[in-house]
Amino acid sequence: MRSFKAILCYLLISLPLSAYSIENNAFVGFSTGFYHKVNTHYTQSIYKDSSSCNNGSGYSVGTCYGGTSDASYQGGSDSALSFIFGNEAIFDPLRISGLRIYGSIEMAKVWLGTRQSYSEHKTSSKFHDSDGKTEVSMLNPTTPQPTLAGNAISTTFSINLDFFANIPIDYFLKKIWSKTPAIKLGVFAGFGAEFSLVKSLYWRNESLSNSEKDSAFYASGNGVFINLGTSLYLSRHDRIDFGVKIPYYSLNQVMWHIAPNSNGTQETNPWTQQTLKQSFDITPSPEFKIAYIFYF
């Protein structure tokens, strides 16, 4: 108890002066992230720019709106692998407090999952063909498909700033054994910003015409996140972290296509072609991680 009080008094005195005695240590490392959920909201809408749109209450100038549908999917991410590089600044000789600034590059396999729920809204809107007389019905998108892309790769670039506080276990043990290594147990909390890209070279898009169903998929996003965790220093050169990253952003993608006609083929008549808009909003969930860090 007396030793604890001595350390507490030391911190209260030394922290205001820490700016004059900062120790910097560069480090590299790697981490693995455990499986975490990925939620996707998928919407489909059909449009037609026409001055002859009949929405049921007469003709109007502007855009004719077709049917819409939306669905929620739940997928996940396999274990991720990250490479880490940065610097740790120590504020006191006992290495109790400080901060870390570091960057990381992470890759993981992602699947957007299976459909959990969906809704559809049909349309009865019509517009005129090029002759100004023949009415063409607005299309309805197909029912959202049961599964989305299942073979995507996620690549994430991030920069982190963590503050930490350690219990200097070695300080107490050295009173018993002078050769005790630099063992410390601590906690950290911080935040960061990152850019993430989800890419699949092959995806079966069931809403398109038969000749276009096989296509690529891309989604990207950036935002902030929070880091929380605990650290175990095994020596002056080795550290193990157990933490969680909580993201506060989503990845988005919008695709525009020529909507397939009622026969499931691509419409070739430019006067009757309609536009299909597909929107994806991908939200990652918190990710638990284990990291090994080596200090130079």
Describe the structure.
The chain has 2 helices and 14 strands; from the N terminus they run αββββββββαββββββ. It has helices at about 1-15, 170-175, and strands spanning about 25-35, 35-55, 60-75, 80-90, 95-120, 125-130, 135, 150-165, 185-205, 215-235, 240-250, 250-260, 275-285, 285-295. The strands form 2 sheets. Strands 1-4-5-8-9-10-11-14 form an 8-stranded antiparallel barrel. The protein is rod-shaped.
The average pLDDT value, as a whole number, equals 88
The N- to C-terminal Cα distance equals: 34 Å
pLDDT below 50 for ≥5 consecutive residues: which ranges? 10-15
How would you sum up the global shape?
Answer: rod-shaped
Radius of gyration: 28 Å
Number of helices: 2
Write a compact overview of the structure shown.
Helix content is 6%, strand content 63%. By secondary structure, the protein is mainly beta.
Question: Can you give keywords for this protein?
Answer:
296 residues
Task: Give the secondary structure arrangement, pairings included.
Elements: H1 2-14, E1 23-33, E2 36-54, E3 59-77, E4 80-90, E5 97-121, E6 126-128, E7 135-137, E8 152-167, H2 169-173, E9 184-204, E10 214-233, E11 238-248, E12 251-258, E13 275-284, E14 287-295
Antiparallel strand pairs: 1-4, 1-14, 2-3, 2-13, 3-5, 4-5, 5-8, 6-7, 8-9, 9-10, 10-11, 11-14, 12-13
